[in-house]
Amino acid sequence: MPDALRVGIAGIGGRVGRLLIEEVRAAGCDLAGGTARHGVQIGDAPVFADLGALAPLCDVVIDFTHASTIIPHAQLLADAGVAWVIGTTGLDADAQAAVDQAATRIAVVQAANFSPGVVLVARLARILGEALPSPAYDAEIVETHHRQKVDAPSGTALAIGEAVAAGRGVRLDDVRVDGRSGHTGPRSDHEIGFAALRGGQIVGEHTLSFTSASEQISLTHRSFDRRVYATGAVRAARWLQGRAAGRYSMEQVLGLV
Asked: Which of 19, 90, 98, 127 qualifies as a cystine partner to 67, CB 3.0-4.6 A?
């Protein structure tokens, strides 16, 4: 019988990190430990001050930390030959380049959201973006999250926007408009608009709308429990076992492509 997959959790003290402990064990994997701030204890989970101490004990690391950690984590995990599941969002171009470089040496699943429902919404967003031309249908995305969230628009909202843009054959950066304010003038034909709301402890809500002069089509996804992200991330970690180096998507994990 093969040995159980050894899973490490970067950011084990966070909201998702604590749920990952339960999901890793429920999946029959070995919890190698996690990283957390100095002095933090998480039940009986082994806690390390940095990823360098944890990585040699792992086959895969699930990472829900902060965008500022991505570049050092990419180098460290690539050097250690440890697979990487990334749920951290808000990455800049340099951080994304570090992920892409790491993926030439190790297997990586990177997703803005590990919920199967969100993956399917993004897939539908691309289909709708292709079918509903921008001069006739205005695409807008509204996302709502808890008051502690530090990046806006959310990574999930941007992933949905990327899907719409891909369906329309354009770059999101060329048509993206965030949080309109003041005298903005009329909306242009090709915009993909984003609005971000923050309040309370809302786990996550995303609505994509296509609106024409005569109809509106809307897709909404609501997360009621962060556990859906933990469950999806562990599924991705198990899927990575034995995979060749490369950057993979949740669509691949779910068998959609």
From this structure: 90
